[in-house]
């Protein structure tokens, strides 16, 4: 009786999880061919309809690319992001030939409040990590990264040393990017943000609000604060 009440994942979901785990671990790289429907049918002992559903959903979610008459391949997940590309702040700084450093201003694991739960599309009270990190360029503050992370997506987030690696490095490694949402605003920051970024009282702040998804879940929600006099966004894309 106990066994009959236990929830069992649908067969197509088991195939999806198998493929996602291979991608997340790096075993299957972008542009690498994945097993065919027939191969998956034999491996999982399921119907062709079941494997077709798994591959079709992963394709629509951006993890796979299906080429008629050729096969199914791992998508370049980085190419799925918003035209305002997601960059590693440390790499941006090093790309300018400058030194990046970081200070962890605060770090906690706590139950999600109603507002955080809404940002992360999760239930109130579920565990989340909250990190506030100050990024510096040539020892000058350039960004405050105020980030909430779904602990179910990144359970080891709290064990990382973010003075040595960035949250971007860690999250891109363990939670392949599916999609991202950006909102850019100009604001007058609160005193603690202004002080940490060494801004003048009347200096505007560039705020990027960003959410990222992996495996159909919101992985993180971040508020990225930049001093207006020391940071700008620029880019080029084809419509």
Question: What order do the helices and strands come in, and which of them pair?
Answer:
Layout: H1 2-5, H2 11-25, H3 37-44, H4 48-60, E1 64-67, E2 71-74, H5 89-95, E3 100-111, H6 114-120, E4 127-137, E5 140-150, H7 167-174, E6 179-187, H8 191-196, E7 205-214, E8 217-227
Antiparallel strand pairs: 1-2, 3-4, 4-5, 5-8, 6-7, 7-8
Helix pairs in contact: 2-4, 3-4
Q: Any key phrases for this structure?
A:
elongated, 8 strands, 239 residues, alpha+beta, two-stranded antiparallel ribbon, 6-stranded antiparallel β-sheet, 8 helices, disordered N terminus, single chain, disordered C terminus
| H and E string | HHHHEEHEHEEHEHEE
Beta-strand level of the residues, as a percent range?
25-35%
What ranges have pLDDT less than 50 throughout 5 or more consecutive residues?
1-6, 78-84, 234-239
Which sheet architecture does the biggest sheet show? 6 strands, antiparallel
Number of helices: 8
* Protein structure class: alpha+beta
Q: What proportion of the residues is helical, as a percent range? A: 25-40%
Name the shape in a single word.
Answer: elongated
- Integer average pLDDT: 84
What is the distance, rounded to the nearest whole angstrom, between the alpha carbons of the first and last residues? 58 Å
Rg (C-alpha, Å): 21 Å
**Strand order, sheet with most strands:** 3-4-5-8-7-6
């Amino acid at each position: 009786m106990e066994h009959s009440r236990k929830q069992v994942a649908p067969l197509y979901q088991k195939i999806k999880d198998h493929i996602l785990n291979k991608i997340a671990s790096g075993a299957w790289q972008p542009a690498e061919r994945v097993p065919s429907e027939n191969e998956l049918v034999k491996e999982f002992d399921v119907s062709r309809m079941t494997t077709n559903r798994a591959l079709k959903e992963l394709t629509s979610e951006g993890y796979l690319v299906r080429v008629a008459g050729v096969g199914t391949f791992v998508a370049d997940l980085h190419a799925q992001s918003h035209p305002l590309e997601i960059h590693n702040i440390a790499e941006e700084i090093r790309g300018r030939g400058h030194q990046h450093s970081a200070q962890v201003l605060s770090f906690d694991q706590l139950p999600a409040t109603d507002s955080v739960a809404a940002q992360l599309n999760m239930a109130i009270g579920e565990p989340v990590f909250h990190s506030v990190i100050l990024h510096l360029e040539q020892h000058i503050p350039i960004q405050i990264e105020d980030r909430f992370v779904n602990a179910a997506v990144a359970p080891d987030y709290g064990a990382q040393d973010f003075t040595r690696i960035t949250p971007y490095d860690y999250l891109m490694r363990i939670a392949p990017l599916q999609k991202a949402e950006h909102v850019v605003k100009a604001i007058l920051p609160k005193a603690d943000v202004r002080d940490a970024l060494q801004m003048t009282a009347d200096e505007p702040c560039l705020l990027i609000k960003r959410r990222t998804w992996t495996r159909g879940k919101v992985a993180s929600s971040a508020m990225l604060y930049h001093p207006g006099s020391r940071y700008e966004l620029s880019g080029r894309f084809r419509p």
